[in-house]
Amino acid sequence: MSATDSDVKKNNNGDNDSGMAAKDPAKRRRALIIVAAVFVLAAVAWVLLWLFVFSTREKTDNAYVGGNQVAISAQVPGIVTSILADDTQRVEAGQVLVKLDNTDAEVRLQQMSSALAQAVRQVRQQTESATSADAQVTKARVDLKKAQADLARRAPLVAAQAEAPETVQHLRDAVDQAQASLDAAQAQAAASHAAIEGTQVATNPAVEQARANYRSAWIAAQRNNIYAPVTGYVAQRSVQVGNSVQPGQQLMAVVPLHNLWVDANFKENQLRHIRVGQPAKVEADLYGGSAEFHGKVIGLGAGTGSVFSLLPAQNATGNWIKVVQRVPVRIALDDKELDQHPLRVGLSADVTVDITDDKGAMNAAPGNGRPIAQTTVYDQMASKADEEAEKIIQANLSQRDAN
């Protein structure tokens, strides 16, 4: 390359450098403006997002589905002879789940049945005895009147010496004896009526006591069949055929999957605007976002989880470290949505509470006195026991008493 060419290139490079140097400040200003605009737009978007989205809701993924776990236990001791339900199976309220050997219960029931029948017959006998005692009083009263009449007729004859004094004295003794017999008959009648007075045969205290004993034996015999108190699904079955069970021993559990809720554990600094009655959206991990449940806040826990734990934290110790606490917030779910997308107790969920309206109460209102859960299975058992006792009573009443 010649010296002339080299000088030309140097001159060209110098001109380019000076031109770029002249253009760089403008490019820098435009770049700064663009960057600033982006930051401003991002800030505005964040403010708008906070005002219209984040500030109107509280969200947590520390939420789990809850439900009632009804423990099924024995009420009487016995040997398990049959198991009629297993884990995952649906059972209806009143369905027999487990059967125990009822030999001893049947023997006692037969004894109480005989005792009830005997009590009815004894009261009938006492009623007839009272009637007989009343008849004896009537007879003694007639005898007294007859003796008094004889004395009144023959006593005046003594003065006319038409009757011996000894005879009149005998008549006076007969009157005294008749009076004593009347008094004894009246006392006997009173004693006979004391056991039955003011009651019918079926309502006599002795019959009522026998009826109660029979009902107790009948219910005990029925309790050898262990019933499902509610409709639900069997879980945690531990009972086996041949087990000797005792009253209170848990055999399995029944979980109703219709009335479920979600306990959402919000951080304490998220509770500021959460109120009872606020709408909530629940997304269960089971459905991966394909199903959404709509519920509402029905109450906030009375304390944090650490307070009610088995070993609560001792915050007064010297090595205390502050940890953000969580308080369970209960979310009621719609039963219709549960029917469409069933859930299971313990499943994880994401909960979003709409806190736009935070004027409501933070504490739940007092209860209205209605039961939150109930069963009529055992009421039916008691009514059936009364029916069976009434059959025995009616079978041992006379036709007159029955009418």
From TrEMBL:
<keyword id="KW-0472">Membrane</keyword>
<dbReference type="InterPro" id="IPR050739">
    <property type="entry name" value="MFP"/>
</dbReference>
<keyword id="KW-0812">Transmembrane</keyword>
<feature type="compositionally biased region" description="Basic and acidic residues">
    <location>
        <begin position="1"/>
        <end position="12"/>
    </location>
</feature>
<dbReference type="Pfam" id="PF25885">
    <property type="entry name" value="HH_EMRA"/>
</dbReference>
<dbReference type="Pfam" id="PF25963">
    <property type="entry name" value="Beta-barrel_AAEA"/>
</dbReference>
<feature type="transmembrane region" description="Helical">
    <location>
        <begin position="31"/>
        <end position="53"/>
    </location>
</feature>
<protein>
    <submittedName>
        <fullName>Efflux RND transporter periplasmic adaptor subunit</fullName>
    </submittedName>
</protein>
<dbReference type="InterPro" id="IPR058634">
    <property type="entry name" value="AaeA-lik-b-barrel"/>
</dbReference>
<dbReference type="InterPro" id="IPR058633">
    <property type="entry name" value="EmrA/FarA_HH"/>
</dbReference>
<feature type="domain" description="Multidrug export protein EmrA/FarA alpha-helical hairpin">
    <location>
        <begin position="103"/>
        <end position="223"/>
    </location>
</feature>
<feature type="region of interest" description="Disordered">
    <location>
        <begin position="1"/>
        <end position="22"/>
    </location>
</feature>
<keyword id="KW-1133">Transmembrane helix</keyword>
<feature type="domain" description="p-hydroxybenzoic acid efflux pump subunit AaeA-like beta-barrel">
    <location>
        <begin position="260"/>
        <end position="353"/>
    </location>
</feature>
